[in-house]
Amino acid sequence: MRNMNAKDGCKNQKVVCLPRVSRVIDIVSVLRTNKHNGFPVVDRGQNGESLVIGLILCSHLLVLLQAKVDFQNSPFPCGPGVLNRHNFSDFVKPASSKGKSIDDIHLTEDELGLYLDLAPFLNPSPYIVPEDMSLAKVYNLFRQLGLRHIFVVPRPSRVVGLITRKDLLLEEDGNTAMTELQSTSVRGLLNGRLLGGNAHLERPLLDNLVIE
């Protein structure tokens, strides 16, 4: 394993992806023919290339298929306010339950022909490693973090920043009795979000994940 990299560990596997706006019948087909716990979701980039925008869990797909409230006639992305139709508890599987199965969900022919925008329900920041990372390091990530999935991406060409351990250490503010991040840059970003600012966090690794 020490002489293998992340790309070697997944080269014999076919990546099963779902488009951001998928037909219901295609989602059902993927769930019936694959036992994966989650699937990459892809969208078109500015140059027409297919880019991964996140990870959607199988259990969340089943919730959406059973609820049916997010089905749409249009093959284009939906507008804001979609998440207001759901409670967080809808997507949490009880510890004592095996969860839903695709065989438990009944859809009509008309419903199978509709579309579902997956973007509001995916994880936009899955764990990602470069393709040349040692497979032993990838294995350690799975063990230490208890992961189910890691995306393997091409080696990124640029660096947008550097986070040190000190940036993430917590300190106690005696005046406000609030716990906050030591790093002024991280604190500024957090404050920008809390104040409704336009702080923008780039995702270079995710942006460089191209599905051929």
Record the strand order, biggest sheet: 1-3-4
The CATH topology of the largest domain: CBS-domain
What CATH architecture of the largest domain would you give? Roll
- What is the CATH class of the largest domain? Alpha Beta
Unreliable residue stretches: 194-212
The radius of gyration over CA amounts to 20 Å
Q: What is the total tally of β strands?
A: 9
Secondary-structure-based class equals alpha/beta
The amount of helix comes to 25-40%
The residue-averaged pLDDT reads: 80
GO molecular function: chloride transmembrane transporter activity
Pfam families: CBS (PF00571)
Domain CBS: 122-178
Protein name: CBS domain-containing protein
Structure summary:
This protein has helices at residues 6-10, 24-33, 58-67, 109-112, 135-145, 184-194, 204-207; strands at residues 18-19, 21-23, 38-44, 50-57, 115-117, 128-130, 151-153, 170-173, 178-181. The protein has 212 residues and is of the alpha/beta class. Keywords: CBS domain, Chloride, Ion transport, Repeat, Transport.
Topology:
Elements: H1 6-10, E1 18-19, E2 21-23, H2 24-33, E3 38-44, E4 50-57, H3 58-67, H4 109-112, E5 115-117, E6 128-130, H5 135-145, E7 151-153, E8 170-173, E9 178-181, H6 184-194, H7 204-207
Parallel strand pairs: 1-3, 6-7
Antiparallel strand pairs: 2-5, 3-4, 8-9
Feature tags:
212 residues; alpha/beta; three-stranded mixed beta sheet; two-stranded antiparallel sheet; 7 helices; disordered C terminus; CBS domain-containing protein; Cl-channel/antiporter
Explain what the structure shows.
With 212 residues, the protein is α/β, with parallel strands linked by helices. It has two domains: 13-127, CBS-domain (Roll); 157-201, no CATH class. It contains seven helices and nine strands; from the N terminus they run H-E-E-H-E-E-H-H-E-E-H-E-E-E-H-H. The protein has helices spanning 6-10, 24-33, 58-67, 109-112, 135-145, 184-194, 204-207, and strands spanning 18-19, 21-23, 38-44, 50-57, 115-117, 128-130, 151-153, 170-173, 178-181. The longest helix has 11 residues, at 135-145. It is globular. It starts with 5 loop residues before the first helix and ends in a 5-residue tail after the last helix. 15% of the residues are buried. Residues 194-212 have low confidence and may be disordered.
